[in-house]
Amino acid sequence: MTLHQILFIVISIAVLASAVFVVTTRNLFHAALMLILSFFGVAGFYVLLEAGFFAVAQVLVYIGAISILFIFAVMLTRGMMGMPRNNSQAQGAALVAAAIFVGMAFVLGPLAATVQVPFLPNSSPREIGGIPWAYSTLPVVPDQYVFDLGRALTEPSRFALPFELASVLILLAMVGSIWVARERRPAEVQAERVEAANAAAEDTKLEEALERGSVSSAPEPAVAVAAADHH
Amino acid sequence: MVDGVLNGIPLHWYLLVASALFCIGLYGVLGRKNAIAMLMGVELMLNAVNINLVAFWRYIRPDDSAGLAFVVFVFVVAAAEAAVGLALIISVYRNLKNVDPDSLDQMKF
Amino acid sequence: MDIINNLLKIVGDAIYTFLHNLIPSPFIADLIVMGLAAIILCTFAAVSFMGLTYAERKIVARIQDRIGPNQAGPFGLLVPIADGIKMFTKEDTTPTAADRWVYNLAPLVIATFALAGYAVIPLSPGVVGTNLNVGLIYTIAIGSGSVVAILMAGWGSNNKYALLGAFRTVSQLIGYEVPMLLNIIPVVLMTGSLSLVDIVNKQSGLDGGTGIPFAVYFPVAALVFLISGIAETARSPFDLLEAESEIVAGFHVEYSGMKFALFFLGEYVNALAVAFMFATLFLGGYAGPVLPPYVWLLIKAAAVFTILMWLRGTMPRIRVDQMHDMNWKFLVPISVFNLITVLLLGKIFTTPGSVGLITVAPLTQAIIMAVATLVPFIGALNLVGRRMRRQLAAVESETETRREANRATAAAAMGGTH
Question: Any CB–CB contact under 8 A between B104 and chain A?
Answer without folding.
Answer: no
